[in-house]
């Protein structure tokens, strides 16, 4: 501290050496939202009430004539002042010097250190005056604090403009508690407006356990009567047995700004190495911003019931951004800012544990109430699967709870169930991707798998192409696309059929035909080969074994992440009447010229089946007309 000087009855003191620098950092860096000053002052006031309530348990005289605990806010637009007062424990002169003269120390920290373990658990202290108090200088040119400590006769005034020094002097105050007057800056007039103040209290302090009243003076004299502006109940701190489903629903709607009912509620308290309370909800409908590129987390973070943030990316992973609710930590510092949350080890441990618990609850729900879980999966499965792509640590757990559509049934299936149904000699988990579920289910590449009773996963969410690249296998069984590389069907016999065996072109005829087709198509395809992938369709396109899956390539091309599409393999069905006919004619003299148009039409058909654009629609129309004319002749 610098030397003290007497000025009238006031005592002028310099802030601790680092205060000015820290104030500058806070105003311009640590705190990004000016409105949080009110959160800090209300939290401090509520904490002061909690302290006096606790002290009153052993010293009833401290509560004499105190009345109901509460926080008062009075705004005066004409005077440009905002007054926040409480009837809590108050401060002595030494308390003012210690709590408001330095940032490094905290009276609250010392108070909490004196508590026993049980008392610390029972007490829901927020913290009196720490770093957060100085946020008032974001909106005020001068701040006056008048306070009187419970049980003492003297009152004191603390005054500062936040620029290096403060003044302490005797004051008059008839009752215990603290009154803080902010002389607002010219650009802070909004903080005397009733709607603005109510909005801030509702956003940050609605849960404060003591009543908060608001009165507006000056130009809005009609609203000068104090009105309670908070609900005053932190629902997450109450036992689950005391909370009805209706109360959970109303809190969910309030916290999540939602209108639907929660599909799942998770409420628990963690104790031990870390202490925190979790009250999370899974919506029953997709929030409007679910697929916003920012992928913001909407769970509110509290520290000892003090609101800190409602979009912290470190609280829950991005793939759980649909969840709503609160997490209230007892271990994070009260004055932590949004910026300081990043890479915070306490935050990281808490996030890891909560995420693990959420996955565990999903797994339990899937077994206990599959219908309810599937209703959640139908809404949020595509988002949860983002975690398979980006969350390596939890990849196996997420694969376990993931559900998929498949060719085996109309219902959803898990990977565990799929593996249990695999055919003899089937070594891979087969899948196909696309943009539309119905179109994927009709893909010609499925024909050979269906004929052998081999189940194929039908993946039609945009994220499917990406997570599948990061998850090479499940339970030791690799994932394999049926639209890339060889089909691997030759060792698996087709299921019995009452139909007569299909006539098939000979191996020699097919060799001649595929050679001819390669010559006609040139660089339009990377290869032409015979396939066992098809039963009813004449031809299809697939990617090479080393190439990119076709659907992924189309996605990247559509988002300008790929300059051009690569040539695909054209696979032809030797049992299809058209292919047999072409194979028969491919031995004739002049076959290349005679069969050029039919071969090009086959490629066009394969492209259409894949939903790809034709290279030359005019040429396609001409060839199709010629073929129809010839067929009708």
Q: What keywords describe this structure?
A:
single chain; 633 residues; alpha+beta; 10-stranded mixed sheet; 21 helices; 35% helix; disordered N terminus
**How many strands, what sense, and barrel or not for the largest sheet?**
10 strands, mixed
Relative strand content: 15-25%
What spatial order of strands do you see in the largest sheet? 1-2-7-6-5-8-4-3-9-10
Label the structural class: alpha+beta
Q: Using the CA coordinates, give the radius of gyration.
A: 35 Å
Distance between the termini: 107 Å
Judging from the principal axes of the Cα atoms, what is the shape? Answer: elongated
| Tally of alpha and pi helices | 21
**Contiguous uncertain segments of 5+ residues:** 1-8, 25-32, 103-131
Mean pLDDT: 84
Q: Tell me the helix content.
A: 25-40%
Strand runs, count: 24
Describe the structure.
- The chain is α+β, with helices and mostly antiparallel strands.
- 35% of the residues lie in helices and 20% in strands.
- The protein has 21 helices and 24 strands.
- A 10-stranded mixed beta sheet has the order 1-2-7-6-5-8-4-3-9-10, covered by helices on one side. A 6-stranded mixed beta sheet has the order 17-16-19-18-21-20, with helices on both faces. Strands 11-12-15-13-14 form a 5-stranded mixed beta sheet, sandwiched between helices.
């Amino acid at each position: 501290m610098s030397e003290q000087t007497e000025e009238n009855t006031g005592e002028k003191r310099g802030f601790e050496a680092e205060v000015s620098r820290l104030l500058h950092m806070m105003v311009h860096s640590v705190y990004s939202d000016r409105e949080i000053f009110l959160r800090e002052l209300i939290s401090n006031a509520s904490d002061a009430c909690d302290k006096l309530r606790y002290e009153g348990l052993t010293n009833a005289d401290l509560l004499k004539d105190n009345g109901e605990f509460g926080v008062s806010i009075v705004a005066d637009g004409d005077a440009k002042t905002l007054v926040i007062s409480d009837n809590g424990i108050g401060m002595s002169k030494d308390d003012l010097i210690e709590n408001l003269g330095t940032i490094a120390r905290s009276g609250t920290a010392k108070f909490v250190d004196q508590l026993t373990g049980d008392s610390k658990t029972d007490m829901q202290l927020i913290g009196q005056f720490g770093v957060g108090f100085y946020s008032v200088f974001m909106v005020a040119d001068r701040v006056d604090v008048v306070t009187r400590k419970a049980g003492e006769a003297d009152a004191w005034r603390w005054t500062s403009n936040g620029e290096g020094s403060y003044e302490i002097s005797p004051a008059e105050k008839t009752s215990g508690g603290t009154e803080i007057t902010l002389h607002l800056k010219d650009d802070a007039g909004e903080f005397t407006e009733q709607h603005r103040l109510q909005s801030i209290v509702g956003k940050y302090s609605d849960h404060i356990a003591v009543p908060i009243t608001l009165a507006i003076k000056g130009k809005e004299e009609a609203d000068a009567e104090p009105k309670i502006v908070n609900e005053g109940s932190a629902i997450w701190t109450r036992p689950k047995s005391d909370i009805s489903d209706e109360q959970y629903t109303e809190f969910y709607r309030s916290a999540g700004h939602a209108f639907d009912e929660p599909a799942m509620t998770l409420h628990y308290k963690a104790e031990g190495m870390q202490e925190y309370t979790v009250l999370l909800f899974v919506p029953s409908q997709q929030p409007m911003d679910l697929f916003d590129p920012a992928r913001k987390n909407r769970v509110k973070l509290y520290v000892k019931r003090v609101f800190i943030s409602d979009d912290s990316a470190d609280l829950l992973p991005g793939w759980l951004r649909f969840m709503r609710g609160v997490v209230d930590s007892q271990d994070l510092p009260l004055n932590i800012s949004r910026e300081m949350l990043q890479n915070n080890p306490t935050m990281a441990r808490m996030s890891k544990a909560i995420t693990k618990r959420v996955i565990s609850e999903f797994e339990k729900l899937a077994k206990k109430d599959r219908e309810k879980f599937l209703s959640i999966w139908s809404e949020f499965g595509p988002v949860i699967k983002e975690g398979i792509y980006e969350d390596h640590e939890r990849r196996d757990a997420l694969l376990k709870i993931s559900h998929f559509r498949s060719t085996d049934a109309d219902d959803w299936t898990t990977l565990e169930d799929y593996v249990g149904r695999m055919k003899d000699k089937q070594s891979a988990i087969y899948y196909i991707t696309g943009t539309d579920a119905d179109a994927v289910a009709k893909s010609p590449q499925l024909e050979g798998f269906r004929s052998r009773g081999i189940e194929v996963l039908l993946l039609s969410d945009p994220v499917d192409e990406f997570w599948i690249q990061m998850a090479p296998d499940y339970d030791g069984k690799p994932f394999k696309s049926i639209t890339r590389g060889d089909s691997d069907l030759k060792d698996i016999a087709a299921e019995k059929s009452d139909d007569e065996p299909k006539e098939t072109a000979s191996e020699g005829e097919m060799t001649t035909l595929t050679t001819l087709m390669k010559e006609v198509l040139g660089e339009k395809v990377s290869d032409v080969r015979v396939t066992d992938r098809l039963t009813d369709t004449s031809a299809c396109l697939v990617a090479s074994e080393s190439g990119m899956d076709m659907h992924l390539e189309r996605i990247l091309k559509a988002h300008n992440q790929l300059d051009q599409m690569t040539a695909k393999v054209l696979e032809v069905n030797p049992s299809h009447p058209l292919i047999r006919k072409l194979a028969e004619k491919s031995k004739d003299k002049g076959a290349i010229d005679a069969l050029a148009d039919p071969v090009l039409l086959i490629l066009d058909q394969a492209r259409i089946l894949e939903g790809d654009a034709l290279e030359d629609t005019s040429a396609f129309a001409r060839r199709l007309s010629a073929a129809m004319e010839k067929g009708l002749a």
